[in-house]
Each structure stands twice: as structure tokens, then as C-alpha cells.
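Raw record, unedited: Type-4 uracil-DNA glycosylase
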Amino acid sequence: MIALAKPVEHVPAGNLATLRRMAADCRACPLWRQATQIVFGRGPAHAAAMLIGEQPGAQEDLAGEPFVGPAGQLLDRALAEAGLDRSTLYLTNTVKHFKYELRGKVRLHKRANATEQAACRHWLAAELARVQPRLVIGLGAMAAQTLFGKDFRIGSERGRWRELGPQARGLATWHPSAVLRTPREARRHEAYAELVTDLRAVAAALAALSDADGATR
């Protein structure tokens, strides 16, 4: 079983549909009060790779699906360039509700604090326990530190595989929204290229797993 950097005392049990229904009633932190709905993970129940983002944005909050806004569109482009099929991946977030502050009528994303992240951690642990991915990809610092610990620095440690259990390993890379927010155009293109490079490493690892599984049959 894949263990998060901070142990989770109680991991909810059930298939993904059951977990999604249970999470919809979660009141462990105040974020549910503002959010339209829960944004739980989506993808095959036994996906070999799981991509973990940080928290839903405004469009994800309305759709109830992860990675459907501008960051999701950039991720789709990067996945395609890396040779990955999104439909074969399980995509989720560290935090399942949209946190924001109002500026006029606009809902501006606000980062979930440590208490809110901790309150949501058991849902991510439940998804990992149910899907049992062989490869886990943390998108952004929040996801990376949830997987690898608070001392992890994505700027210097992204793209490096780490063991996450007897049969699983993970790496971290840039969150697509961080790429979009990069102010300098040259650095933005560079960050996007690094994201694609890291996703190509995931594609290569998936291909190696497939070859190894085929050889043992």
C-alpha cells in the first residue's frame, strides 16, 4: 500500500463510486460551505498511473470534474505531446473542494491551508488504496509534499523517481497552473517543456511496466 508522507489514521473503504458518495458528505473542514460540489478523482479503477493535482479551480467546481479548466487544457496538450492517453490515467487532487475569495463577482482561487489539506488527506489515501497505481505523479508543490514530505522542493527535485512502496514509485513535476502563471514568456515555455519531459518519463515507465507484465504471462 502506498503511504503518504504523513500517516492517515483512518482510510475510508469501498469502491470509487462509494468513496465519491461518502466524500460528497464530508464536513471535516469548512471548504464545503463555499464550494458548489465535491471534485473527486476520475479515471479507471485500476489505472497504472495516478496524477495528483493540488485543488479544484472555478471550472472544476462547477463541473465536478478534475482538470477541465485552463490548467486542464494545458495538461491535455502536455499529455498528448508526451504520448499519454488521459483516458487511461486516474486524475485527482490533494484537496477536493474549491477554495476562493470573491473580488466583485469573480471567484479567485485561494490556496488551502495546512489544516484543510490535512482534513482531506484521508480521501487521497483512500483513492491510492483503491486504485493501487504503480506510478504516482504529483503536480505542484502541495501534491509533491503530500507524497514526499514537507522538505521536498519541486524546483530542485522535480522529475526524479522515488520509491513509494514495494511496487510503486512516484515523481513530481510542475502543476499546469504554475506554468500558466509564469510571468516571463521564455521561462513559461521552459517550464512547459520540463512538464512534457517529466510526462515522457512517465510514458516510458508505463511502457516498461507493460513489457514486464507481458513477459511474466
